[in-house]
Write a structure and sequence with these properties.
single chain; alpha/beta; Aspartate Aminotransferase, domain 1; 3 domains; five-stranded mixed beta sheet; 19 helices; pyridoxal phosphate; transferase; cytoplasm; PyrdxlP-dep_Trfase_major
């Protein structure tokens, strides 16, 4: 029990020079530090009483052990829960890392609006109350050729709202091959059930024909819904019915043709030989009554979902009670408005997601070589360049891979997993990829303004391993 008697008193810990520096110079609240010391000493006491104390603990070092544990706990608690990171994974729209990055001008607009009062629901012309729904509707209509549009907080919400407002208690026909589940266990069938719509499945997993829809449509049918397959694709013995074939059928029977596009692509990637994914503009032009899509994927904006299409249907959606539940705030509108403005201006290179997708492989290779030339002499890390492949990510374009180049690190002694842990604990955190005991930094997803931070991190790690 002599070890128990060596646990330092709280007052002694608080009066330590390091503690006083934290309180008086670094601004750590006295009560916060006191609470941490109380928690740590209590944990150490329990550990000793349960005979679980490490053999390294002794009467001579328990004071320093307590201080060390307490300061580490304090540092963890003061660390911001939501932090910016450097994405070196090669996945451009990385869902776990926040999906699309905002353009600089969009981020500036968010800051401007967040710090001030704004015209969120105020009309400067009339001096009366305005509608937040009018803030970006004209830009959306102009860009995609729709009669009307509305913004909600994500595309899952858009699907839920469309079905709730237009098909509650009524039948919606969907191909079995499109009843998808995407990230976060989002299942189309379950969303339909929650909305009150009645699901009518047609076709098989791999093949659905126009005749399947023709046989299924009846007086109870309110809508035919097409769903983008998002994060997978099928090939081989498959068949599906496109929107051009479905439009005459829905017109003939007076039912809504609704397409959940998943990712809202406004830029024609086929012109760059990347994908033949249809743009929202093309889908609207085919006569689809309603489309919905994400804003924070290929559109490169904030988290939001857009519903666009025929004015009569949008008005029904706008007046539904769920619309208020699912609406977005002023900062989302600010970021979305600026992102749409960049599309209007044709300033695609200013939208980080599109810039990363369209970046030329040779340009990436040159960026890696320039980075290596700036590295200091490393004692424990070997670096090289490798041809790699990147992906768009975010449940978009699953069949597309993008040629890329990576900085590759290997080590004489250290383990790759240990190095990636040190990278994650760096400030800013750096998220890299490990394959075959190699650490990869894919430069398709790394900005040039992040190079200095990575060089500094590599230099520090070289001294630690």
């Amino acid at each position: 029990m002599t070890l128990l008697r060596s646990i330092p008193a709280i007052d002694q810990l608080l009066n330590d020079d390091q503690s006083q520096t934290m309180i008086n110079q670094e601004g750590v609240p006295f009560d916060s530090l006191k609470s941490v010391f109380q928690e740590v000493t209590s944990d150490i006491r329990s550990t000793i009483l349960n005979n679980q104390a490490p053999s390294s603990w002794n009467e001579g070092n328990l004071y320093e052990v307590t201080l060390s544990y307490a300061f580490k706990l304090l540092e963890a608690r003061q660390r911001k829960a939501l932090q910016s990171v450097i994405n070196a994974t090669g996945t451009i729209i990385h869902t776990n890392l926040g999906r699309s990055r905002l353009a600089d001008t969009a981020a500036n607009r968010v800051t401007e609006v967040a710090k001030s009062y704004s015209t969120l629901e105020y009309d400067l012309t009339t001096g009366r109350r305005g509608s937040r729904h009018d803030l970006v509707e004209e830009r959306i209509k102009t860009l995609i050729g729709a009669e009307a549009a509305i913004v909600v907080n994500n595309n899952a919400a858009a699907v839920f709202l469309v079905l709730s407002a237009l098909a509650q208690g009524e039948e919606v026909i969907v191909s079995r091959g499109e009843l998808v589940e995407i990230g976060g266990s989002f299942r189309v069938s379950e969303i339909m059930e929650e909305s009150g719509a009645i699901l009518h499945e047609v076709g098989t997993t791999n093949k659905t024909h126009l005749s399947d829809y023709q046989k299924a449509i009846c007086e109870e049918t309110k809508m035919i819904m097409k769903v983008h397959q998002s994060n997978f694709y099928m090939e081989g013995f498959t068949a599906s019915v496109n929107r051009q074939e479905l439009k005459p059928l829905t017109t003939q029977h007076g039912v809504v043709l609704y397409e959940d596009l998943g990712s809202g692509l406004l830029y024609n990637l086929s012109e760059n030989g990347i994908s033949d994914e249809p743009t929202v503009q093309e889908v609207i032009a085919y006569g689809v009554d309603l489309v919905s899509f994400s804003v924070d994927k290929l559109l490169g904006g904030p988290q939001a979902g857009i519903i666009a299409g025929k004015k009569d249907y949008i008005e029904q959606i706008r007046s539904h009670s769920l619309n208020r539940v699912l609406r977005v705030d002023k900062m989302t509108y600010a970021a979305l408005d600026e992102t749409l403005r960049l599309f209007e201006a044709g300033s695609y290179e200013e939208i980080p997601t599109l810039e990363a997708v369209l970046k030329k492989d040779e340009q990436i290779k040159q960026s890696v070589q320039s980075f290596i030339n700036r590295l200091p002499v490393l004692e424990n890390i070997n670096v090289s360049i490798e041809q790699t492949t990147a992906q768009v990510g975010g449940g978009t374009l699953p069949e597309v891979t993008l040629p890329s180049h990576s900085l590759v690190m290997t080590f004489d002694e250290a383990k790759a997993e240990h190095v990636t842990e040190l990278l994650r604990l760096n400030q800013p955190a750096i998220i890299a990829r490990v394959e075959n005991e190699k650490v990869y930094f894919d430069f398709r997803t790394i900005d040039s303004n992040e190079h200095d931070s990575i060089i500094l991190a590599i230099s520090k790690i070289d001294q630690l391993i």
